[in-house]
Amino acid sequence: MTLLGLLEREPSHGYDLKRDYDAFFSRGKPLPFGQVYATLSRLARDGKIVIGEVEPGEGPERKRYVITERGATEVESWLTEPVAAEPNLQTVLFTKVVLALMLGRPAEDYLDRQRAAHLVRMKELTDIKRSGTLVDAMLADHGLFHLEADLHWIDTTVARLDALAKAVRK
Fold first, then answer.
1. 85 in a structural domain
2. Which of 57, 80, 103 is a domain's end point?
3. Domains held by the chain: number
4. Spatial separation of the C-alpha atoms in residues 2 and 8, rounded to whole Å
5. Has residue 132 been placed in a domain?
6. Which of 11, 82, 93, 150 is most buried when burial is the number of CB atoms within 10 A of its CB?
7. Per DSSP, which regions of 23-168 are E strands?
8. Which domain holds residue 113?
9. Beta carbons within 10 angstroms of residue 109's beta carbon
10. 106-160 pLDDT, tens digit each
């Protein structure tokens, strides 16, 4: 949907789409060229984009992709639909705590290690926020707020471990 949205903004070559995606959305996880072109192929197959101008290049011809009305309608629908409220009630953090308790293992040790990992990541995100662009800062804030919520949950869970252990060992 992101590539389709970028095409609604302006017709583009695959290389330009990858560059824009990586600049605004990837943050540490660049989009592989193969994925860009595979996605463009599926979008064309599904009638959401068409190939516009074809220009000669040093290698293969450069295709400029153009969004269709069907594609633009899908972007509009996607943008107006709320994102599913997170998190789900099934999380890896919770699963590990419950299994540790069920197996008689030290869940508090796991939670302490998780807290330490969260604090390291929060420092990384804070550094990104201070030295990056506005986009970097906003993405870092999103991550920081989620990590803060996780830390609150970890502290609450540690306080309830004895009661939780009794509940899961029945």
1. no
2. 80
3. 2
4. 10
5. yes
6. 150
7. 49-55, 62-67
8. 92-169
9. 10
10. 999 999 999 999 999 999 999 999 998 999 999 999 999 999 999 999 999 999 9
The type of residue at 89 is L
Q: How far is CA 71 from CA 81, 93, 150, in A?
A: 16, 38, 37
What is d(CA 131, CA 121) in angstroms, rounded to the nearest whole number? 15
pLDDT (tens digit per residue) in 71-117: 999 999 999 888 777 666 668 888 899 999 998 899 999 999 999 99
Tell me the C-alpha distance between 2 and 125, whole Å: 23
Q: In what order do the strands lie in the sheet with 12-13?
A: 12-13, 62-67, 49-55
Contact 18, 24 (CB under 8 A): no
Count of C-beta atoms within a 10 Å radius of residue 39: 18
DSSP code of residue 52: E
Q: Is residue 86 part of a domain?
A: no
- Give the Cβ contact number of residue 49 at 10 Å: 25
- The helix/strand/coil state of 61 is coil
Between CA 170 and CA 98 the distance in angstroms is 12
C-alpha span between 53 and 32 (Å, rounded):
23
Q: Which of 139, 114, 118 is nearest to 129 (CA)?
A: 139
